[in-house]
Amino acid sequence: MRDLTAFILILIMNFTFAQKKYVLVIHGGAGSVTKENMTPEKENAYKEKLTEALKAGYTELQNGKTSAEAVQSAIVILEDSPLFNAGKGAVFTNEGKNELDASIMSGKDKSAGAVAGVHTIKNPIKAAIAVMQNSEHVMLLGKGAEKFAKLQGLEIVNPKYFWTENAWESLQKVKQRELEKQKKISEHEKNYPDYFEIDHKFGTVGCVALDQNGNIAAGTSTGGMTNKKWNRIGDAPIIGAGTYADSEVGISCTGWGEFFIRATAARTIAAKMEYQNKDIKTAAQETLDEIEKMGGNGGLIALDKNGNIAMPFNTQGMFRGTVSENGEIEVEMYK
Ligand code: ASP
Fold first, then answer.
1. What is the pLDDT of residue 262?
2. I need a labelling partner for 278 at 20 to 30 A (CA). Which of 88, 179, 298, 311 fits?
3. 17-26, 54-63, 300-309, range with the lowest pLDDT
């Protein structure tokens, strides 16, 4: 009898403490996401869009599709929404253009694809997937990438399609700040070719999914950083920096790209797990801490093959959401 009671107790404990298994995670950028900066309407709009993306990705997984297909479905919804800095809604360069970057990696065979600096591809994540699946390359740039996307039958749009008032206003504000700062700085600094003011509101989007066969894929899509110059490219299209996936874990990052590149952020998380046996939360947090020490900020999402997640950020907030194995959806944005 005692044995039976103990057995039942263990069963109950196991059930109570059973780790939730996640199958899909998304982010919609990190930055100054605070309750004070939000209206109830805006908060709802974000929640609805993130939920829609999570549902779209989850439906693919439920239908037995690959993790890459789930990542694509989720990211396309965020790219098509003007709320995020990816696809429509992308931020503007100093020259007033939208210059888009995206990448994807499939952990199963470590295949990967990316496009950078594109102006006419409606959904850059689709182009990244096409590069991964239908070319022998990993990264295509600018006009060449656009030509390839067209040949792949992807939707090409007039660059004006990406214009949104919000992103345009952000550029004007940042440029104004830049002007004011320039008045205060020395002649030397003024002429220093590296000087420019950037905005630290990151609205990049990303997704990591785990499919029914246990394969992980991770993808990221962005307009980069407001007021970027000289065809600057961030971490989002760089495999190992903004995006990475292997058979153990998938990662998508958002934040000040230069630091994520220098920290080889996404790959570092996977390496800490691979070589140091660290769990996903420790690996992700340590990597973000290293970025913070270097002076960078942002956040990331990570999902491992057992359905564990990490979503650290060192900004005021980060748009993020999860779906568990049984379809339970959670969306958050504040600390
Ligand atoms: N990481 C992106 C970049 O540096 C920006 C972002 O996350 O919003 O281009």
1. 98
2. 298
3. 17-26
Query: Of ligand 1's atoms, which has the minimum distance to the CA of residue 255?
Result: 7
On the question of pLDDT at 19 being above 90, the answer is no
Residue 193 — pLDDT band, cuts 50, 70, 90? Answer: very low
55 within 8 A of 79, measured Cβ to Cβ: no
92-117 pLDDT per residue, tens: 999 999 999 999 999 999 999 999 99
Long-range contacts of residues 133-138, Cβ cutoff 8 Å, at least 24 apart: 137/113, 138/112, 138/113, 138/114, 138/239
State whether the Cα torsion 301-78-141-159 is positive or negative. negative
Beta carbon of 87 within 6 Å of any ligand 1 atom: no
Atom number of ligand 1 nearest to Cα 228? 9
List strands edge to edge, sheet with 298-304. Answer: 243-245, 249-255, 298-304, 309-310
Respond yes or no: is residue 243 known to be catalytic.
no
Q: Which among 164, 204, 222, 268 is annotated as catalytic?
A: 204
Question: Among candidates 321, 327, 83, 56, which has minimal Cα distance to 201?
Answer: 83
Q: Is the pTM of this model over 0.85?
A: yes
Q: What angle do CA 251, 333, 225 make, to 5 degrees?
A: 65
pLDDT at 284: 98
Cβ–ligand 1 contact at 254 (below 6 Å): yes
Task: Give CA separation, 69 vs 112, 142, 187, 210, 331, in Å.
Answer: 13, 24, 52, 11, 21
Q: Tell me if 266 sits within 8 A of 240, measured CB to CB.
A: yes
Measured distance CA(323)–CA(217) in Å, rounded: 15
Domains of the chain by start residue, with CATH: 22-334 (3.60.20.30)
Q: 56 phi and psi, to 5 degrees?
A: -60, -45
Q: What is the mean pLDDT of residues 61-73?
A: 98
Structure tokens at 327: 């379809």
